[in-house]
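Lab notes, practical 5.
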Amino acid sequence: MAHWYKFALYYLWIAPHVLLAVVAVFIYTRRLHKNFPIFFFYTLFETLEFLLLFSAYMAGHATGVWYRYVFIATLAGSTALRFGIIQEIFNNIFCDYPRLEKLAATSLRWITGFLVVAAIVSAFYSSGTAPDNLMLGVKVLERSVTIIQVGLMLFLFLFTRMFGLSWRSFVFGIGLGFAIFASTMLAAWTLQLTALNEHSKQLLDLLPTGSYHVSVVVWLGYLLAAEQPVGAATYPVPEMDRWSGELGRHLQ
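Output from the prediction step:
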């Protein structure tokens, strides 16, 4: 392993989580954890996960079964929290539109149930050891959540003006950070399907952690900038509310 690659690997593993701990402190001191409790818990969870896995790695347990089970459990927890953050973002956007908020919550609950079942089925019918089966199930869940996250974030960016969401607001910053990370992950998974040489594979391994570093910097930047609340919608609220009510009745 080249010296520069080892340095980049450690830096992109350590630095984002150090900054994420700073993000957690800012969220708490500015009392944003009351509006974004899941995202706040996510920052704490990711920081503690890093401390646990990094300590085990430095102690030489990176190839053991215990390390793999911890990695699988923390990956599953992180994936579940990311999906919860999607719900939290839309709750903050739709807070002035009760019917849309209820519709979004119901839809996400059904999607969550479907993804969990798909992950369990994939793990159950896979061949291999128990850790490998669990890893496959969690990977299915993670990739499904990532695809949904990209789609929902695209929706968020397309309709920011309709819902009166300022691009300077913290809720937009949360969505932007996850959009960067999720879209990069999808690109990395696609590139893994192509024929790559060893050097290209090493560079590709740095892509997810590098994009996560960018995402954390985005969150920190939005925290340091002036917070702009969700404003009034550009389009009339009654028409949007009527539309959401009609759609809700069709889905019942």
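Observations recorded by the TA: Residues 146 and 182 are 5 Å apart (CA to CA). Confidence is low (pLDDT under 50) at residues 229-237.
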